Amino acid sequence: MGTVVQVVIALAVAYLILRLGVGALRMLGTPLPPPPPPGEMRRVKLQYRCPVCGMELRIERATEELPEPPRHCQEEMELVAPIDE
Predict the structure, then answer these.
(1) Does residue 26 sit in helix, strand or coil?
(2) Phi–psi pair at 14, nearest 5 degrees
(3) β-pairing, 56-62 with 42-49?
(4) CA dist., res. 5 & res. 30, Å (int)
(5) What is the reported pTM?
(6) pLDDT (tens digit, 9 = 90+) per residue, 54-77?
């Protein structure tokens, strides 16, 4: 009885490993989706700071990968750093 249980457990583990491996290979074989058309909103994570007053602004969606910096206190804001999340 003990040997039968061990064989069933081994087959279940082998099946699980096989499913995980096939899933990983499918993810690697799937091409990236095409970029959105121009003018459509896309996710960006940028943080800007006003050099005059120090106000900070976080941009999460824009129509371009790197949009023009916003203006505050009649000056262009400085890009602090892209936010990695």
Answers:
(1) helix
(2) -65, -40
(3) antiparallel
(4) 38
(5) 0.51
(6) 898 888 888 877 788 888 888 888
Amino acid, single-letter form, for residue 34: P
Residues 6+ apart with CB under 8 A from 62: 41, 42, 44, 46
C-alpha to C-alpha distance for 21 and 17, rounded to whole angstroms: 6
CA–CA separation, 42 vs 37, rounded Å? 10
Strands 78-82 and 42-49: antiparallel
What number of residues does the chain have?
85
How far are the Cα atoms of 33, 42, 62, 65 from residue 36, in angstroms, in the given order?
A: 9, 7, 12, 11
Q: Quick one: tokens of 34? A: 């095409």
